[in-house]
Here is the input.
Amino acid sequence: MSDALEPPALTDAARRASTVRTPWGEFWRRFRRQRVALLAGGFVVALAAVAVLAPAIVPYDPENFFDYDQLNARPSAAHWFGVDALGRDIFSRILVGARLSLAAGFSSVTVGALLGSLLGLVAGYFGGPWDRLIMRICDVLFAFPGILLAIGVVAVLGPGMANVIVAVAVFSVPTFARLVRGNTLALTQLTYVEAARSIGARDWTIILRHVLPGTVSVVLVYFTLRIGTSIITAASLSFLGMGAQPPTPEWGAMLSEARSELAVAPHVAAFPGLAVFLTVLAFNLLGDGIRDALDPKAGRM
Amino acid sequence: MLKYAVKRLLGLVPTLLVVAVLVFLFVHLLPGDPARLAAGPEADPETVELVRRDLGLDRPMAEQFVGYFSRAVRGDFGRSIRTKRPVMDEIAERFMPTFWLTVWSMAWSVIFGLAVGVLSAVFRHRSPDRAGMALAVSGISIPSFALGMLLVEVFSVELGWLPTIGAGSWKHYVLPSITLGAGVAAVLARFTRASFADILHEDYIRTARAKGLGEAAVVLKHGLRNALVPIVTMMGLQFGFLLGGSIVVEKVFNWPGMGRLLVDAVEMHDYPVIQAEVLLFSLEFILINLAVDVLYGVLNPLIRYE
Here is the structure.
């Protein structure tokens, strides 16, 4: 009997059947087939690498190098994206700007997702007064249009990139809380949660080991899509003069500075605009791809 | 129907109250002394004390809140620190340009978004769908300030067809409303496509086709009417996005509206104006959501009788 189960005796087909289909394996199998999302993912990875390496690879100092002979010069071999009104190299400023925008988008959404998911888990699992209180807070936060909330936070804390991150994180919280609460409500009704409870597992063990994993996929999709939104919001606040201040090479702040020169040197505005657009586009396409891979039936929202 | 609307309206009271408390506390959350801020940087201590008594900041918090609240209900938000004029007058003259800008943006983006969404659903996985959805994902990804500057560069600077700033004639509305509506149109197109694609598989669509109706009648009469319920909800949610978006777009086009007033107020630390604006923006947002809920009830009789 044991002879029959020796590895050499297994046929190819049997071996393939014996490999376990893990959720992540399934996800990757479906994700790989979407060329646009793969490309977007590649772009995000490349951008992250650029952001990390920016200080080492910039050809010129983004803030303190001034080429006075080439003010507002168009793109050339020496300055790939041209020169702005003060003589600074736009390419170097875009590279360093990637660092700021990605850091702002990523950190604010991480904080928002962590806080929001925690609130959503508590509200959905414990229900009752907890649920009512948390959902009421979310209602209030939803009663302000996102950017208005952010402007309010900046008005209290003062302008600056760190405050912008706080502001953007605050308005990500209710979205994640609602999303996770809905999922938790459905998951707590399932038999395996009942089983865990019946053998005496504690609430937080059930939440962390049995409910949380079930919410990871929706959180991941929203996390990716939300980074795009947050990058736009952070850049918008900088454009309004409430975020990064000149001469910081933040993309929104760069566009704001380029406004007065629009008729003379449109390329000064074009490159930061293009940078925000492509970055956000990549995150949106990546998020769409992840969602389609996790749940092919889900509609495009 | 009326009962449903009243019930929903009453449900808003707690949310509105919390918003009002937050906006009231806003001035007290600010770093520094509100009386000193109101009196100006050069005021001596006696003047600051006078201002404090004048603004009622020396009284207990609860009394202050009641006073603030009863004045706010009557539309009295105090005077602007910058211009010394009543805040309500400042806002009143800025209200209409923002209102019309939002309405025009919503109008074109609904028409355009629905058309692209329906076409994409009907020609699913074919070239009109691909083109429509590529346009939609771009519309979601482009920041409004970048789009606005691009439109100004092309249509005002290069071609000279349209004016850049101001809100005088209909020509002034073209570029700002396109800029503001682009994101909403894109979201609506994606959403319409998704809900429409589901509906095209329903039995009643097959029945409509089976009885020999033309494709246009099937899509527009039987399909669109049923798809409209979730789409109206989405439109309402997007109105909030328009309100927020108008703040950025008004800055790009130097629009004499409420959004730019708010940005200027934050820059100048004009707290009474910020307070009133945040309260009004939120009120508008909440009321629009209420209107959408009621409209939803009109479109979908199932909800009314819950």
About this structure: Chain B has a mean pLDDT of 81. DSSP finds 13 helices and no strands in chain B. Chain B touches chain A through 51 residues (CB under 8 Å).
